[in-house]
Write a structure and sequence with these properties.
Largest sheet: 8 strands, antiparallel
Number of strands: 8
Strand content: 15-25%
Mean pLDDT: 81
Low-confidence stretches: 34-44
Radius of gyration: 17 Å
């Protein structure tokens, strides 16, 4: 029996694996949103930094990782930029922002470290209100859109570069 037949006969397994992947990615996003240390990344003095872009990922800048996107930056709307390196070339793989109603909840959750006391607050906000897109795309996709969102946030080397050289870039 082939893989396709096995998957077709076990829809609960497919659903479980998909939900598991989404939970893992949400956990990674939550940790990175709060400036948690990533593997191979030492703790730095001062506030944790993240990359943001105010020109659809053409350029990016480092700022306080606790900022909730979108926010005003020099008169433009800035969103979080997820930066990677492949074959020595840095690029923005995807952008992130909150819907207006969830942005307010995210700011409230992060105020006074409430989110640290109850991490489910931010997990809920991110699951319901985080939107993602690749630079140049017109439409934003909610992170809760499953496979469509996974395809956006899964890093890919531009121009078919060697995926073995793919690495996350931190400020």
């Amino acid at each position: 029996m082939g893989l396709r037949e096995t998957l077709n006969e076990n829809p609960k397994l497919v659903t479980g694996v998909t939900v598991g992947l989404i939970v893992i990615i949400l956990g990674w996003i939550i940790i990175s949103s709060f400036g948690g240390s990533a593997p191979g990344r030492g703790a730095s003095a001062g506030a944790a930094k993240a990359y943001f872009s105010d020109d659809d990922g053409k350029t990016y800048f480092a700022d306080d990782a606790r900022k909730v996107a979108p926010f005003d930056h020099n008169g433009k709307q800035a969103v979080k930029a997820n930066v990677y390196r492949c074959n020595g070339k840095e690029f923005v793989n995807h952008l992130e922002r909150y819907t207006p109603e969830m942005r307010k909840k995210a700011e409230e959750a992060m105020a006074g470290d409430r989110s640290v006391k109850d991490p489910t607050i931010m997990a809920t906000v991110q699951q319901q209100g985080l939107e993602v897109k690749r630079p140049g795309d017109k439409d934003w996709t909610k992170l809760s859109a499953g496979q469509k969102a996974m395809a956006i946030i899964t890093p890919q080397c531009p121009g078919g570069g060697n995926p073995e050289t793919l690495e996350v870039v931190y400020p």
